[in-house]
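Q: Protein A?
A:
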Amino acid sequence: MSSDDLFNKLIADLAKSCHGSAELRAVKGFLANDLKKTSQREAFLFPKLVQAAITWDAVKDTVWADAEKREENRFPFLQGDVIGTTTVLALGMAEITQDHDLWLVLSPDCDCVRSSYVRVAPVFAVKKGPKVDNDRTQRFGYSLKLASPKAFPLPPLPGDIDQDLRGYFADLETPYFIAADDKGLATSYASMTMAAWHLLNGLIQENETRAADIAEATAIRTRQ
C-alpha cells in the first residue's frame, strides 16, 4: 500500500467517528427505545452518573509515584465535576454581573491543572410540583435521552435536601470560562463516574464537531 493509499484509509477510518460516534448513537437508541418513560430513564441513569467529589489529596499518593509528579498534577477539580462558584467569565458579560453559581466542568483534566482558562457549563435545577418550569422540564427530558448535544442530565447532588428537586441539566451550548487565578475559589460538589465521563465526552464531541447533514457537508468540501 502506498503512503497516499494508507493516509486516505486512515482518514476514511477517522471520518467514521470524528463527527459523532456510532457508539453514542447506540446509547441514545437504548435510552429512547428500551426506557420509554422519562421516569424510567431517571431511575436507571441517576445512580450511574455521579459520585462523591474526587479531591487531589485523596488520590495523589495512589495515582502518582513521586512528589514532583504529584505537585505537577495538583488539580482543583476535574472534567465532569459539578462545582460551585460565581467567579466565571462569559463573552460579552462583565465578571461582576455573574450571579449563577452551579457549573459543570467541560475542559479536560490537564486544562484544569495548567490552562489559563477552563470551560464550564451552567447547571440548572429542575423542580416538580408547584415550582415546575415547563421549559426546563422539557430540556431535562431531552437531556435524559441525550437527544441533543446541548444538554447533559445530572441527578440530585450529595447534600441536596429540596424535596421538590428532580435533578439538573447542564447547558452545553453557551461558553463560559474560569480564569486560572480563580480556580481555587470553586467548590466541588460531585465528580462523574466513569460511565458518565465517557457519555459527557461523547456529547461534547458531538456538540463541537457534528455535521447536521454529513452528505451535504461532504459535498460542500469536495466541490471544485
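Q: Protein B?
A:
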Amino acid sequence: MDLISQGYFDGHDVLFVDTKEHLTSSDEIAQDLITGYNWFAENNGKERIDLDGDPGYSVPRVEQRLNEWVMLSRSKALSAQGKIFEARDEVLSWLNPDR
C-alpha cells in the first residue's frame, strides 16, 4: 500500500487506520504461518516457501497460477451474470493448448 500511496496519491494514506492495521496484522500472521510451514518443509523433505524471491524459483509458474485465478474469477463473474456460454468460453480459452 505504501508503494501505491507514493506512486498515485502523493504519499497520502489511502486506507483507514483500522484497515491498515488489519492488513498489517494479516501480513504478520501470514509471515508466521510461512515460517511454521518452512520448518515443517525442512523436516519433511518438502519444498519451502521462499519469501526473498529466490532467483531459481519459476516465475512463469507463478504467472501461470495468477492467470488461472484471473480466468476462474472472470468465468465465475460471467456465470453469475447468467452469461453461461461466455463463462464456458473463458475456461475453454484457458485450456486451449495454443495459447
